[in-house]
Every structure is written in structure tokens, then in C-alpha cells.
Design brief:
- The chain has one domain: Up-down Bundle (Growth Hormone, Chain: A), CATH 1.20.1250.
- The relative contact order is 0.15.
- With 502 residues, the chain is mainly alpha-helical.
- The chain contains 15 helices and no strands.
């Protein structure tokens, strides 16, 4: 079977590509339906970021709590994605897809109607939960709908383009909705996507025979989900409880123990959630670590730059969304260049460290921003540099994270790499927000918290601290990727099962 192009960014994959006696009549309409659902999931990762300052002002939550609007979604999505793939096998792809759509729409409506911070967080977590059902089921439907090799490549190309553009669409759409309607419409807009995809899915998707041998690794799911939550919650508590508090290090220790127990259990389970053989290849393991690191640094940057642009420079939500476009453009150009030119010619060992180095340089450059910074000269250049670095790492690492796996493991490998990205984003957002809040508190010590100039400068100190630590994370990624990746161009297997990712 032909391999999916390395730069195709979609959410998760199924384990094999079943053959079909006849091609579905409405397969291109089915692609459109699945594409709408995918766009809804992808843009939701960025659309709410632009609305965060408005939501914070409306609901009155603190700077320390704002991270949970991002983290609740990413953590629920990332920690349950592996389980979502198994549920689609167990209960059927069409049913899982429709339930995921309906649940995502309901959670979005709940979030838009939120009258409190707690209600918003519950809604965001529910979005992540149903997104974890929707994403693997959507890709499973795509792979069984397009069984012709040439058509499948086209379908994956369209699907990947939708996913790749989703981040930029989310930033722009979030700005437009927040400025001209209300921040709540960044959540309500999902209802329109969901209704279109749901109605089309009901009439066009066919029920497939369920895999009755599929089982859910309940202990593994409980261990990994609770372990990841404890680790992220521990980092988050450092902002309000300090690092010496049991509420911080206690959760971190419990999380580490649970994740260690999950690893042990995967060696004993009859049907493991994540077979450890997937992680044994050296390039694949290096790619998993690289995806975790790039997610940790990148998600936080989106959060803090949004606040800097709107609160420090006074940008409107639309102008904020437009300001991110050079970074997105750099990311897409570098991703395409990496997959088509650099990786086939040089292999991952120089490409990923170069990307990590560019990302670190972009972060260091951003530390110099102040209240008088100019966008063309002070902000756009580091955004482009950082975007180029992100693209080199993401395209290369995600391609190799799923390359060469056995057909029966391609789905779990794709789901796992998305989990690493989402968990990295959760950890990075929690840790960087904690460091930001500590820097702001330290700067305001002995100063009047009612002095606008002092508060503005304190925020700049917080942003600078977050960028410096992001640079440290990427520098560590540079060293790790140099040490772990093999030299040379990795061998490719033209008959390997396609594995696609986000």
C-alpha cells in the first residue's frame, strides 16, 4: 500500500486499511463530512485562545486559573485518545463518530453558556473527551471509505490540508467572533460544524461490522489518564501553593508512580492500550520525545503572546489573530520543506536539532519585547523564526514517530504521538503559567499593585520569563534529539500501513 505523505497532519489512525469490493458511491461527500468534523476539532485548539482575555474579564477568573481553559481540553483529549480508538473498534465507527459529534456540540453549547469559570472548565474537558472519540473514528471512516490507493492519497492530502490550516482558521475566526459578537461564539460556532457533519453522517455513512475481538484496557486507561492528570495538576498547583507544598510535589510523585505502573501494566496486559514495542525503535522514541518537547514550548507561546498582544499592546482580537499568521506560514513552509527535501536527503539527525535551535532562538528574541515594540521589526521576525523551527520539528518527528510500525500497530502509534503532543501542551502551559505568575508576583513585591505602570511592567517580566524557559525547553530538545536520532536517512517500506497524525 502507498504510504501517506509525511507532512499530512491529521489526528489519529486506525490499525489497518480494509479492502472493499466496491468503492462507496458518495465517498467524496463522506470526505467533506469528515473534513468538517476534523476542522471543528483542530480549530478548537486555537480559537478559544484569542477569546481568553475577554472570557477572563467576563467570568472574573485569575491569571493562575486561565491555563485550565486550554489545559482542560488538551489533557482530556490527549489522555483519552488511545481509548477513543479502541471504542471505535468495539462499538462501530459510525456510531462512535456520531456520538463524538453530538457530545462535542453539547459540550460547546455548555461552554458558550457558562456563567462561571468552573462551568467553562467542565465544558472544555467534555469537549476534549468527545473529541477523543471523534478523531480516531473520523480517520477510521476515511481509511475504510477510500480503498483505492490513488484516491486514498488524494483524500489524505485534502484531510491533511484541512488539519494544517485549522490552526490559522481558528486564530482568525476567534478574532472575528470575539470582536464582532462575543467570546461565547467561539464555542457556539462548533454547533454549526457539528450539525452539518452529523446530518451528513447519518445519511451517508454505512454501519460496518464491529471487531468483536476488540477489548478495552480499563486498568491501562485509568492508570495513564489519572497519572497524566496528577502530573499536570501538580505543575499547576506550584503557582498557588509553591513548589514546597505537598499539593505540588505530592501530585507530581503520585503522577510519576501511576505512569510507571501504566508502563509495567502494558507489559502484562493481554490487549495493552499502548504496546511498548511501538516505542522500542530509536528514531521513533526520539520522535515521541521531540513531539512532547515541541508541544510543551509551543502551546505556551500561543497563550502568552495572545495576552501580550491584547493587554500590553492593545491589539483587537482580529488583529491578534492576524499577527500569528507569519508564524503559521513559517511553520507550514518548513514542514513542507522538511518532508519533501530535508528529511529524504539528510535524515532526522540534523533536521530536528536545527528546528529546536531555531525555536529556541525565536524564544530568546521574544524576551526583548516591551510596551513600545513594533510588530514589523520586533515581533514578526522572531515569530517567523520560531514558526520555521516548529515546522521542521513537527513534520520530521511526527513522520518518524509512525514510520515503519507494523500494520496492527499503526493506529496506536498515531494516537500515541498525538497524545504526546497534547500532553506536552498541557504540561508546558501549566509549567510556564506557573513561572509567569511567580515572576509577576516577585516583580510586584514592595510595589503598589494598583500602579498601572508597575502592573504592565510586571506582565512583561512574566512574559519574558516564560519565553526564557521555553528557550531552555527547546535547547534541551536540541541536545536530546542530537543524542537520540540515528545518523542517515531512515529506510522506508513502501508496503507499510499508512499512519497519519496531527
Amino acid at each position: 500500500m502507498p504510504r501517506t505523505p509525511a507532512d499530512v497532519p491529521v489526528d489519529a489512525a486506525v490499525t489497518s486499511l480494509p479492502s472493499a469490493d466496491a468503492l462507496p458511491r458518495h465517498r467524496w461527500w463522506i470526505l467533506a463530512i469528515i473534513g468538517v468534523a476534523q476542522l471543528m476539532v483542530v480549530l478548537d485548539a486555537t480559537i478559544v485562545n484569542i477569546a481568553l482575555p475577554s472570557a477572563q474579564k467576563d467570568l472574573g477568573f485569575s491569571d493562575g486559573d486561565r491555563q485550565w481553559v486550554v489545559t482542560a481540553y488538551a489533557l482530556a483529549f490527549g489522555s483519552l485518545l488511545l481509548l477513543g480508538g479502541r471504542i471505535a473498534d468495539l462499538f462501530g465507527r459510525k456510531m462512535t463518530f456520531l456520538v463524538g459529534l453530538a457530545g462535542f456540540a453539547g459540550a460547546s453549547a455548555l461552554g458558550g453558556a457558562s456563567g462561571s469559570f468552573e462551568m467553562l472548565i467542565v465544558a472544555r474537558a467534555a469537549q476534549g473527551l468527545f473529541g477523543a472519540l471523534l478523531a480516531p473514528a473520523a480517520l477510521s471512516l476515511l481509511t475504510v471509505t477510500f480503498t483505492d490507493a490513488r484516491e486514498r492519497a488524494k483524500a489524505f492530502g485534502v484531510y491533511g490540508a484541512i488539519a494544517g490550516a485549522g490552526g490559522a482558521v481558528g486564530l482568525l475566526l476567534g478574532g472575528v467572533l470575539t470582536e464582532y459578537l462575543d467570546w461565547r461564539w467561539t464555542l457556539y460556532v462548533n454547533l454549526a460544524f457539528a450539525v452539518v457533519a452529523f446530518v451528513g453522517g447519518v445519511f451517508l455513512l454505512q454501519r460496518a461490522t464491529r471487531d468483536k475481538s476488540a477489548t478495552i484496557d480499563i486498568p491501562g486507561t485509568v492508570l495513564v489518564s489519572s497519572g497524566l492528570f496528577c502530573v499536570v495538576y501538580g505543575f499547576s498547583n506550584a503557582e498557588s501553593h509553591d513548589w514546597s507544598s505537598p499539593a505540588t510535589w505530592g501530585f507530581l510523585i503520585v503522577g510519576a508512580v501511576l505512569l510507571a505502573a501504566f508502563t509495567w501494566w502494558q507489559t502484562r496486559a493481554a490487549h495493552p492500550l499502548l504496546p511498548l514495542r511501538v516505542l522500542l525503535d530509536r528514531n521513533r522514541a526520539a520522535s515521541f520525545v521531540s513531539v512532547l518537547i515541541i508541544g510543551a514550548g509551543m502551546f505556551g507561546v500561543f497563550l502568552f503572546l495572545t495576552y501580550y498582544l491584547q493587554q500590553s499592546l492593545g491589539y483587537t482580537p482580529i488583529k491578534t489573530g492576524l499577527a500569528f499568521l507569519p508564524m503559521i506560514a513559517g511553520l507550514m513552509v518548513a514542514a513542507a520543506l522538511s518532508s519533501t527535501v530535508l528529511l529524504p536527503r539528510f535524515g532526522p539527525k540534523p533536521v530536528v536539532p536545527l528546528g529546536m535551535g531555531l525555536a529556541a532562538a525565536g524564544m530568546v528574541w521574544l524576551t526583548g519585547l516591551d510596551l513600545t515594540s513594533s510588530y514589523p521589526t520586533d515581533l514578526m521576525p522572531p515569530l517567523v523564526v520560531a514558526g520555521l523551527g516548529f515546522g521542521l520539528v513537527i513534520s520530521t518527528a511526527m513522520s518518524l514517530a509512525t514510520a515503519g510500525v507494523a500494520a496492527e500497530d499503526s493506529g496506536v502509534a498515531s494516537a500515541a504521538v498525538n497524545t504526546m503532543q497534547q500532553v506536552g501542551g498541557s504540561l508546558g502551559t501549566a509549567l510556564l503559567n506557573t513561572l509567569f505568575s511567580s515572576a509577576v508576583t516577585d516583580y510586584l513585591a514592595g510595589k503598589s499593585p494598583k500602579d498601572p505602570a508597575a502592573v504592565a511592567q510586571a506582565s512583561l517580566e512574566g512574559y519574558s520569563t516564560a519565553y526564557w524557559w521555553s528557550a531552555v525547553v527547546f535547547a534541551a530538545g536540541l541536545i536530546i534529539s542530537v543524542l537520540l536520532y540515528r545518523r542517515g536517512v531512515p529506510a522506508t517500506d513502501p508496503d507499510a500501513s499508512p499512519a497519519v497524525h496531527m
